[in-house]
Automatic annotation (TrEMBL):
PANTHER family: FORMYLTETRAHYDROFOLATE DEFORMYLASE (PTHR42706), FORMYLTETRAHYDROFOLATE DEFORMYLASE 2, MITOCHONDRIAL (PTHR42706:SF1). This is Formyltetrahydrofolate deformylase. CDD domains: ACT_F4HF-DF (cd04875), FMT_core_Formyl-FH4-Hydrolase_C (cd08648). Catalyzes the hydrolysis of 10-formyltetrahydrofolate (formyl-FH4) to formate and tetrahydrofolate (FH4). The active site is at residue 221. Belongs to the PurU family. GO terms for molecular function: formyltetrahydrofolate deformylase activity. Keywords: Hydrolase, One-carbon metabolism, Purine biosynthesis. The lineage of its organism: Bacteria, Pseudomonadati, Bacteroidota, Cytophagia, Cytophagales. Pathway: Purine metabolism; IMP biosynthesis via de novo pathway; formate from 10-formyl-5,6,7,8-tetrahydrofolate: step 1/1. Residues 4-78 form the ACT domain. It is an enzyme of class 3 (hydrolase). Its EC number is 3.5.1.10.
Length: 276
């Protein structure tokens, strides 16, 4: 059995020694270990992969007894995460995730897809995954989000992935999934806002196009960043070419972010991430 041991707490001398001694006493093997100390905050982070058999609650209790009282300790078995995707009309991120899921490359179980339009329903059905159309017309944001929450409750996903879902989520919805909603968007923000950022980018003669994957919080597009990447463009590419390049980098960055999160490699500290 493989477990991920995740610890964050105020730093002090001897933390690694204490942790490894407890792991050893429980006859577990550390197959991988990473740690980091935020010097400004004097705060310690550790992610270790453990192999062996153990009673998780007992090991966590033993660690709590010897680590600082403020320590956050999790022992997570290695397994696929359960997720639900939210979509609007753009297919590129959804299609990429469906293919990765089909061939076992996602490290997750896509339980369902929810769309505020039904344009992508036929694509989802080809993969045998439930699609729920929850239209937003003539509803307040809160009413629409409540309807989506009702659907999500039947699946109880560990993470909600916004695969180019193009509506702002209400604070009440976001609060149900703290650091468990993952979004992808282009990295022109805030310079090029509005409905057609690629036209604006083309007119300004940008030289790079990027994408950012982040956790969603109550501040629009300001949640902790998980992954980013850029590609180069030039004057020979028009707005349509740039949009295609943007879609390519978006689906890659989203997949990279999900890989990190599902492997328990991401700690959230205030409004930034520590990634091992």
């Amino acid at each position: 059995m493989v477990y991920f041991l995740l610890i964050d707490c105020p730093d002090r001398k001897g933390l690694i020694f204490t942790i490894t001694q407890i792991v050893f006493r429980n006859n577990l093997n550390i197959t991988s270990n990473d740690e980091f100390v935020d010097r400004q905050q004097n705060y310690f982070f550790l992610r270790a992969e453990l192999a062996g058999e153990v009673h998780p609650a007992a090991l966590v209790q033993e660690l709590k007894a010897e680590l600082p009282p403020e320590a956050n300790i999790r022992l997570v078995p290695e397994r696929k995460k359960n997720i639900v995707l939210l979509v609007t009309k753009e297919h590129h991120c959804l299609g990429d995730l469906l293919l990765r899921h089909e061939f076992g490359d996602l490290n997750a179980n896509i339980q369902a897809v929810i769309g505020n339009y039904n344009e992508l329903e036929s694509l989802v059905q080809r993969f045998g995954i439930p699609f729920h159309h929850v239209p937003h017309a003539h509803k307040t944001r809160e009413e629409h989000d409540q309807e989506m929450s009702d659907v999500l409750a039947s699946y109880a996903p560990e993470y909600v992935v916004l695969a180019k879902y193009m509506r702002v989520l209400s604070p009440g919805f976001v609060a149900q999934f703290p650091n468990r909603i993952i979004n992808i968007h282009h990295s022109f923000l805030p310079a090029f806002i509005g409905a057609n950022p690629y036209r604006q980018a083309y007119e300004r003669g940008v030289k790079i196009i990027g994408a950012t994957a982040h956790f969603v919080n109550s501040d629009l597009d300001e949640g902790p960043i998980i992954a980013q990447n850029v590609i180069q463009v030039n004057h020979t590419q028009d707005a349509r070419d740039m949009a295609q390049s943007g879609r390519d980098v978006e689906k890659i960055v989203l997949a990279q972010a999900l890989k990190l999160v599902f492997a328990e490699r991401v700690f959230v500290s205030n409004n930034k991430t520590i990634i091992f």
